[in-house]
Amino acid sequence: MSLDYVTADDESQAAIGTSPLDPSDPQHELAAARETLVRLLGIVKETVIGRDEVIELCIIALVSDGHVLLEDFPGSGKTTLAKTLGEAIVGEAVPLSSSDKSTAEQDLAAFRRIQFTPDLLPSDVTGVPIFDPSNNSFYFRRGPLFAHVVLADEINRTSPKVQSAMLEAMGEKQVSVDNTTYPLGELFFVIATQNPLDLVGTYPLPTPQLDRFLFKLTMEHIDRDAELAVLSSHLNRQQGNTGQEAEKTKTVTQQSLLRARRAIASNVVISDAIKVALVDISRELRRDSRVLQGNSTRSIVLMLPALKAAAALDGRSYVSAADIEKLLPHVFAHRLELAPGAGDVKTLLQEIMLPAMEQLARSTLR
Amino acid sequence: MAKLFPLSASAGSAEQAAWGDDARSYRKIQLLRLAAVAFAAWLVSLPITIASGSTGAVFGALFVPFLLDKFYQTGRLAQFRLSAAITVALLLASVGLLIATVLRNGSELSELLSASALTADNPLALYSVGEFIAGFALAAAVCGSLHLLSQRGGAGRLCELTFIACAIVFTLTAHRNGMIDRPFMLGDFALIRGYDPAYLLMGIGTVSLLVLTAINLQEANKVRAVYHLATLAAVCLLLIVFVSRFGLPTPELTNNLGLTGQQGNGGQEDNPFQDSTNDPKDKAAPVAVVVFHDDYEPVDGSYYFRESAYSQFNGQRLDYATRADMDTDLLKGFDRPTDSRDSNTEQSLDYAISPLPDAPRRAVRTTIGTLVPHRSPFGLDTPTAFKRIPNPNATRFDNAYEAISHVPLFEFDVLLGRKTGNKAWSDDVAAQYLTLPDDKRYAELAASITAPLKPEFAQDDFARAWTIKRYLDENGIYSLKNAHAAEPDPAASFLFGDLTGYCVHFAFSAVYLYRSLGIPARVGVGYSVPASNRAGGSSLLIQAIHGHAWPEVYFEDVGWVIIDPAPQQTLVDMTTDPQDNLQQLLGEMLRNDSSFEQFVNAQRESTFDPLASLRQIGRYLAIVAALIVMFGYLAKIQRRFAPRFGAGTRRSLTGYRATLDRLADVGLRREFGESREAFAARCASYTPGLTELTSAHLAATLGAKDSTTNLYQSRTKKSGDTKLSALDWDSLERSVRSELQTNFPLWRRLLGALHPFSWSTTR
Cys-Cys crosslink for A112: which of A144, B20, B97, B325, Cβ 3.0 to 4.6 Å? Predict the structure, then answer.
């Protein structure tokens, strides 16, 4: 179900404009949240062409406090995506989640990129305490993890040691160096990539570590028109960064994103029928002989905020079957371990979720 | 042992594995097996129930094993204990039988039902329904249990095959020994269409054989299976060729008294006392059928058909006359033409009887068709002319001819005082009719028997003959088993011994006694049929059991008169069930005229008409179908108008359902597992309004209970309202309706509206 966001945006603007608004009204809160998301979406889409679905899922993951693993090939625009996303989130200073004043004044970077290699060390990622001869003390020099959006390129090329440091940051939103814990930003968001074809000299992520990623997205080549559009916009960009000023105005504040996250979490309804469908699909997956290891309960728990975000982005105050259809393959596919010869995981998921989806659809007529 | 366990536990899958990956051919074999079982159930049900019961049996035998097959594939059935499953089956059968009994026995329930339109036109309908249920229940229980057994594999499979084989074999054996109308359902079916039921039965046998073999070959490798089937087909083809070339096998009768002239019966023709092969189980086999063209009721209660006579003493016993001037009233053998059976040659008998005023006779014309070969033509006592007629059914009748008989109408009293012997006989011939074994005892016994006669009758031939008959009646014991066969003179052994024997002994003894008294006598051989067997019809069936021998005495100017001893004591039951249907059927076949058509039509109307039962079943089906359709329309109307009356929380549900029904009418249906939004998007080109209605509906059902509005439902929402009013629903639904009207032609919508079950596809 593709939705024309510009139109939806206009519509929502009109709605907000005509109805008497009460800031505490949940309807209003949701409308504001959606406005933020659609705005962010619009900004990123303007730069990253032909990746609408991936952008949408990335924003859903960002709002629902998850991380994304991209399975792609070099030069598919993931850096552009991560950079644009990171740069679009600026504005009001976000207070760090702890009261560590020594690092508080240092503003977090919008975007960092880490190229993972086998010889990378954890301190290259997290940062390292450095001796300051001027005041005879160590100060912590932040690594690239201290950013809103982190692009972890080719995460499967680095040693498990570095991977585990990454995973701590992703799971706990903190970095531990020398027995000292440094908090990360509340909007900390990781886009990790891996190349599925080039497996020589890699440390593939085991299934439990994959479980930390909310989505695993497989990027396909963009279509012809989009590719042409990329070429023309690239030429524009090289001719002169005239749009710099204009781009500056196209931002979303971190504060508004956090507000949106809270509004969505508290105001979007997930009916019992949806939960029943999720559990039924999971149970059916675990029972199926083609699936060696089913998805975890955590995956369903993590999925709930994502479903809510997807619903809100679609302009609904309730989660419906369309949201499940949209997210479920990206949430479940990398969490399953299939028996040899079981075939394509997406096809398998489509097949297994059908009865539960049918039940869900029928439940609305009861 | 551990290795054996999984084998036995999964017999079904092992069976499937034997067919390899060719699961489709396995399924075909299963279907074939189902069909065979249903056919067997039908055959078994034929003699015990009416057409509707047979139909029920077929349904029961098809339905339950089919269900079992379905469930067995899921593997859950294998967990039940076999005894438990069979007990359940039998309990269900009992319940079915109980219902059937209640229906058949005219209880209040059945009276209630018979008052309804279903059975008003036919009082038998209720009984038919009861039979249907009973047949269904019994067949379901028996075939279900057998099928369950067979699915467990191993010896259990044999049970089902045995059931099929037995059903077919028992059905076909009923046809043996000339019972051509058996089994009645198949026989009548074939006969009223003018062909021989034997071919039908052979066809059934052949197909059954093939099917059984195909099922049996399940585990064999396929190359061998093809070889087996080809061999079997060749054998069956050979059989058919043999039958069409040489005809159907005729029944072999053992107790024929030499009447049929068949060889290989241990020389019975030479010695009528050879009774070792007498076998009462053949006694019902039909040998001939007689059609009366004139009404005639015999005075002594039996029709006598004389074929030949033992009249000439050959030094040891009486035998067929070898002299041409003896027994001129009998034809010696058939004048069988060599070219064709149908040639119309008259075989006349130079024999004339001039009936006396006090011993009247009447000419009776009969047509006789023999079902088995006979050595000579026979006719009703006393035949005067034979005429061969075209064989009306060459596969059935061996020979057909007309006989004119001058039947006696007089009582025996008129014979009193009448002389015996024929003046036309030469002395030599007269002496031949008086020759008896050189045994004084005959004359002595005859003298002692006739001694008590009153003086005025002491020299009267009939009185003396009658006294001797009475003596044998009172003292003789009828038995098929006797101890006289090996004696040089069995008659003497019988008469002066235990007086236990059968008709031949009685006849020979009586003739010897008569001859010892100077009364010319001979042993007549032929058939004696009780007059009651005719049962008022015009045809009379002669069966093997009616083969008979009797003493005859020649009275001057009257002819040969049968004086048949009837022993009062008998050790064997020589009665048979009346074969009225077969008698009538063969008679009409022999008559071969337009009345046969009438008979056929009468049979079709009265006894068996598959079309009528089909019509009956069709009528019920039509009523049931009408009820179902009516239910469909009622449900459709209820669902369509429910939103008008519904209010509150159910409003979105009923309204959305009614809209979906409308979409289903024009063929727009949600696929299995398709979400409502996806469906709405798919239909968007026809009904753009559906998207909005769907999201409103989903918001009402999936959203928060207190607020049923969509986030951005601003266009339809009145300002300040948080809930959609009934008016809003109406406008949403109306927009979908008008879109359907513009986007679909009228005929398509009308067609959908007429469909009674379009709503059932709404999901």
Answer: A144
pLDDT tens digits for range B415-447: 888 888 888 888 888 888 888 888 888 888 888
The Cβ-side half-sphere exposure at B611, using a 13 Å CA radius, reads 3
Query: Both tokens of residue B477?
Result: 């014991």
- Residue A277 pLDDT exceeds 90: yes
pLDDT > 90? residue A31: no
**Residue of B676, B697, B711 lying closest to A30 (CB–CB):** B711
Residues A190/A166, Cβ–Cβ less than 8 Å: yes
CB contact under 8 A, A316 and B697: no
Among the listed residues B480, B539, B479, B544, the one whose alpha carbon sits nearest the alpha carbon of residue B284: B544
Structural tokens at position B669: 């249906």
pLDDT at B616: 80
Domain boundaries, chain B: 4-173, 283-436+521-598, 613-761
CATH topology of domain A41-263: Rossmann fold (3.40.50)
**Min Cα–Cα distance to chain B from A365, Å:** 6
| Cα–Cα separations (whole angstroms), residue B596 to B401, B590, B602 | 18, 9, 10
More confident residue, B80 or B269: B80
pLDDT > 70 fraction of chain B, expressed in percent and rounded:
72
Assessment of whether the complete model's pTM goes beyond 0.80: no
A12 CB neighbours in chain B (<8 A) are 712
| Substitution target from A316, A319, A363 for chain B, most B beta carbons within 10 A | A316
The Cα of A254 is separated from the nearest Cα of chain B by a number of Å equal to 24
pLDDT at B686 over 80: yes
Nearest residue of chain A to residue B659 (CA atoms): A365
Task: Return d(Cα A32, Cα B425) in angstroms, integer.
Answer: 141
What number is the ipTM of this complex? Answer: 0.80
- Cβ separation of B714 and A357 shorter than 8 Å? no
Instruction: Determine the pLDDT at residue A57.
Output: 93
The pLDDT of residue A307 is 94
Of A315, A324, A366, the CB nearest to B712: A315
Chain B interface test: which of A314, A320, A324, A349 (most B C-beta within 10 Å): A320
d(CA A8, CA A232): 27
Contact B652, B701 (CB under 8 A): yes
Residues of chain B neighbouring A361 (CB-CB closer than 8 A): 670, 673-676, 763
Other CB atoms within a 10 A radius of the CB of residue B364 amount to 19
Which residue ranges does chain A devote to CATH 3.40.50.300?
41-263
pLDDT 10s digits, B723-757: 556 667 888 888 888 998 888 888 888 888 888 88
The yes/no answer on whether domain A268-363 falls in CATH 1.10.8.80 is: yes
Residues B189 and B200 sit within 8 Å (Cβ to Cβ): yes
Q: Is B651 on the interface with A (CB under 8 A)?
A: no
> DSSP character for A269?
B
Please list the residues that pair with A176 across neighbouring strands: A181
- Mean pLDDT within B231-240: 76
How far is it, in rounded angstroms, from Cα A268 to Cα A307?
A: 9
- Tens-digit pLDDT profile for residues A219-249: 778 888 888 888 887 777 666 555 554 555 6
- A28 Cβ contact partners less than 8 Å away, ≥ 6 residues apart: A16, A21, A22
Label the pairing between strands A215-218 and A68-71: parallel
Crossing angle, helix B197-216 and helix B222-246, to 10 degrees? 170
Mean pLDDT (whole number) for B534-538: 79
Angle between helices A321-332 and A345-363 (to 10 degrees): 150
Contact (CB<8Å) A354/B672: yes
A319–B contact, CB cutoff 8 A: yes
Chain B residue nearest residue A1, CA to CA = B678
Residues A210 and A156 sit within 8 Å (Cβ to Cβ): no
